[in-house]
Structure formats: structure tokens, C-alpha cells
Write a structure and sequence with these properties.
alpha+beta, Immunoglobulin-like, 28 strands, DNA binding, transmembrane, signal, signaling receptor activity
């Protein structure tokens, strides 16, 4: 229990005073308080000790004693003989010495070497490159770190491994600036690389800041991944028929991987990043294309001297036309014209049928009126005579003939 109480009190002192130190080398964060203890300081009288400072604020050794006033609120001696710096800054870096005489007349000295630090914000890569060219020096980007002290260093990494500038394949141009007001540093590191043939198509670059202090973790940037293009990749051409990769359902697509390297290397195909289960061939033929064939295709070339090379990506998509079928709920342009023509013909036939029906109805109605029952016997006899007179005439006409 006593040990836990002592540990809690120690943590409280650290929180209140920043750091209670008694070693020779002290590291303190800028803007925080710092307290230095004086070994052998007598409880009474305090006149038997003094502090001497040689820092960026003094031209020579500055002497402080318990009787003196606080030194411009920069440092003051506490009742227990310790020296307190309420807010330490860059100018407080230097040497601190305390000399005390205990009650037995023995003189005890304490020496401290104080250094200060300030971590910068997370570094970042500005103006990152999206493409690099094989065999041509290309700028990858500029790594920037702001607001650090001491200056620290910037370093580059390629695919997770340290990238050592050799002046040929990779060069670095560094710049360091110091803010005149705060004294903090801004670092810049510009990386230029010359991609080699056979290298990765999408290398990963990152940058990190390392402080000039022990046991301090590096700060890393977000990675960037430019695309490498060059002569050997331009030599791999992917030609697709029909051009553009758009084909109707049931159509045919032919992709040809053209390679300038000799002898002809092994060529296989990938779709949406996955290898296709086909034998190596420079030609990929897709008959009767359906929805399952839609996707992004590449040809991958493997050559002993050039390594692995990939072509550009080609997207195969299905287009619906009026002649080759339309999806439910949609009609193409030619389909709309055919539909309109059909509706027009059906409408015309419907109108004609209606007119014919009306004419036939009226004709039947007229005949019905002529065949009404006669009102008296005289009308009936007259009608019979007319019918008898019409029959001989009809017989004569049929006998005469043409």
C-alpha cells in the first residue's frame, strides 16, 4: 500500500511540474514546466545554495540565489532548493548547476544538461506523381514536415523498405527552413527515381520523419502508388474487336495481345484481377457473349528478360438493340419505330372495319323496311303482279346472254 501511495504521489508531481529529474541529461518538451532538484540542499538555512545557468538566454553564467528575485519569470528557486522553469523554451537549452552546503559543512554539486524538443505534425507527400516512365528520371513527390525541433530527418521507403539514394536510380533533394519567430523547423525532401525495366507496375512510396531523440517513434506519411509506364509496357498492345468492347447479347468478342518481344513469351489472361482458366495464348475468343462475360480484361506477358508485363485494361460490356433483343420494360429506338408502325396499321384496320359494319347495318335495316307486311289485300295483289312481271324479264335476259 505504501508503494502504491508513493507511486501515486510521484505521478501527481509529474503532472503538476512536468518532470522531476535528477540525472545528468534532461529532455523536456517545449512549452511544459521543468523542475530540477538540488542534491544535498539543506532545509535551513537556504542561503547555503546557489544555481548557475548557462543557456541561450544568458551571455555567460547567470547566478540565482534564494534571496534574489525571480529571473524575469524564467526560473526561480523553490523553498526546497529546486529550480523551476514554468514554461521551457528553445532558449532554455543549456547547462544548469547547483552547489549546496549541507548542515555538516559538506558541499554537494548537481549538474544538468537540458535539451528541448517539439514533435512536428504528421508529414505528408505533396504534388504526388500519378505516373512514372521507365528509363526516365521522374519526380515521385515532395515530403514535407512542419513545426519540429530539433530539425530531425526525412527518409523515403519503397514497398515498405528503406530507399537509399544512389544518385542514379534514386536521388533526393533536401531543404530545411527555420521559423524566425518560433525557432521550429520545416523540412522538405524531393524524391526523383528512374524506374528500371522489369520493375513493379505499381510501386508503393512513403516517407517518414525521425526525431533526433532516442526512443522516439517515426511519423509516417500516407503511401502513394503511381503507375509505371515505359517502352516495354508500351510494347504490349491489347486490340479488341468490336472496338470499344461493346457487344450485343449473343455476339462475339475477340481480344488479341500483341507483343514485340522475341521469342514470343507466355501470355495468359486475367478478368477483374483474377486469372482465367485458359491455356496460354495471344488471342482470347468469347463466342455468344452473355452477362457472365462482362468485366475488365488484361493480357499478362511473362518474358525471361523483361519480367512480367501487363497490357492496358479493356472493358467488355453488353449493349441491347431493337433487332437483337430488348430487356423487359425497355425498348430501343428501332423498336419504338416498329411499334408505332404496327399500332398505326392496327388502328387503320379497326376504323375500316367499323365503317364497313355501319354500312352493312344500314343496308340490312333498309331491306327490312321493304319487306314489311302489306296493310291490305290490294297491296299484296299488286306486289304479286310486280313479282310475276319481273320473272319473265329476268328469264329473257338470261336466255339472250352475251
Amino acid at each position: 500500500m505504501a508503494a502504491e501511495t508513493a507511486a501515486g504521489a510521484w505521478v501527481l508531481v509529474l503532472i503538476l511540474w512536468g518532470a522531476v529529474v535528477g540525472g545528468q541529461n534532461i529532455t523536456a518538451r517545449i512549452g511544459e514546466p521543468l523542475m530540477l532538484s538540488c542534491k544535498g540542499a539543506p532545509k535551513k538555512p537556504l542561503q547555503q545554495l546557489e544555481w548557475k545557468l548557462n543557456t541561450g538566454r544568458t551571455e555567460a553564467w547567470k547566478v540565482l540565489s534564494p534571496q534574489g528575485d525571480p529571473w524575469d519569470s524564467v526560473a526561480r528557486i523553490l523553498p526546497n532548493g529546486s529550480l523551476l522553469l514554468p514554461t521551457i523554451g528553445i532558449q532554455d537549452e543549456g547547462t544548469f548547476r547547483c552547489r549546496a552546503t549541507n548542515r555538516h559543512g559538506k558541499e554537494v554539486k548537481s549538474n544538468y544538461r537540458v535539451r528541448v524538443y517539439q514533435f512536428p505534425g504528421k508529414p505528408e507527400i505533396v504534388d504526388p506523381a500519378s505516373e512514372l516512365t521507365v528509363g526516365v528520371p521522374s519526380k515521385v513527390g515532395t515530403c514535407v514536415s512542419e513545426g519540429g525541433y530539433p530539425a530531425g530527418t526525412l527518409s523515403w521507403h519503397l514497398d515498405g523498405k528503406p530507399l537509399i539514394p544512389d544518385g542514379k536510380g534514386a536521388t533526393v533533394k533536401e531543404e530545411s527552413r527555420r521559423h524566425p519567430g518560433t525557432g521550429l523547423f520545416t523540412l522538405q525532401s524531393e524524391l526523383t527515381v528512374t524506374p528500371a525495366q522489369g520493375g513493379p507496375a505499381h510501386p508503393t512510396f512513403s516517407c517518414s520523419f525521425s526525431a533526433s531523440l532516442p526512443r522516439r517513434r517515426a511519423l509516417n506519411t500516407a503511401p502513394i502508388q503511381p503507375t509505371v509506364r515505359g517502352e516495354h509496357r508500351e510494347g504490349v498492345q491489347l486490340v479488341v474487336e468490336p472496338e470499344g468492347g461493346a457487344v450485343a447479347t449473343g455476339g462475339t468478342v475477340t481480344m488479341t495481345c500483341e507483343v514485340s518481344a522475341q521469342p514470343l513469351p507466355h501470355i495468359h489472361w486475367i478478368k477483374d484481377g483474377m486469372p482465367l482458366p485458359f491455356p496460354p495464348s495471344p488471342v482470347l475468343h468469347l463466342p455468344e457473349v452473355g452477362p457472365q462475360d462482362e468485366g475488365t480484361y488484361r493480357c499478362v506477358v511473362t518474358h525471361p528478360s523483361h519480367g512480367t508485363q501487363e497490357s492496358r485494361a479493356v472493358s467488355i460490356s453488353i449493349t441491347e438493340t431493337g433487332e437483337e433483343g430488348s430487356t423487359a420494360g425497355s425498348v430501343s429506338g428501332s423498336g419504338l419505330g416498329t411499334l408505332a408502325l404496327t399500332l398505326g396499321i392496327l388502328g387503320g384496320l379497326g376504323v375500316a372495319a367499323l365503317l364497313i359494319g355501319v354500312l352493312m347495318w344500314r343496308r340490312r335495316q333498309h331491306r327490312g323496311e321493304e319487306r314489311k307486311v302489306p296493310e291490305n289485300q290490294e297491296d299484296e295483289e299488286e306486289h304479286a303482279e310486280l313479282n310475276q312481271s319481273e320473272e319473265p324479264e329476268a328469264a329473257e335476259n338470261s336466255a339472250g346472254g352475251p
